Structure to design on (123 residues):
């Protein structure tokens, strides 16, 4: 029994191995690394979420402009517009196309009115 006590005492008094301060320092470094990695992942997820929401909103707005259907956007529609193409090489030649214009803050869409248009100044 006495040899067991002596063995335990020699292990406890030994200067070999890690100290308590080394262990605490390694845990602190590990904690800082895990916290920084977690912060980077959370920031990346937040950026991805905002980007996805913005992309979805812009796509919905573009679809509303292209279809002329106003669900959630301030869609301005004007049915009495014309687009005139003039040829620089053929003086006096114009093509007039009547269009519907749908606009929002970010997008503009032109849709030709059926049965309109023609050469030489319009319908």
């Amino acid at each position: 029994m006495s040899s067991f006590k002596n063995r335990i005492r020699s292990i406890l008094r030994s200067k070999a191995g890690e100290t308590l301060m080394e262990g605490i320092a390694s845990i602190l470094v590990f904690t800082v690394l895990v916290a920084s990695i977690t912060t980077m992942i959370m920031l990346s997820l937040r950026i991805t979420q905002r980007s996805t929401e913005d992309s979805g909103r812009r796509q919905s707005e573009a679809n509303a402009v292209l279809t002329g259907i106003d669900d959630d956007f301030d869609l301005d529609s004007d049915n009495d517009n014309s687009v005139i193409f003039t040829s620089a090489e053929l003086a006096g030649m114009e093509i007039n196309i009547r269009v519907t214009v749908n606009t929002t803050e970010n997008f503009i869409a032109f849709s030709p009115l059926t049965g309109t248009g023609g050469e030489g100044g319009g319908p």
Summary: The chain has one domain: 2-119. The longest strand covers residues 76-86. The radius of gyration is 37 Å.
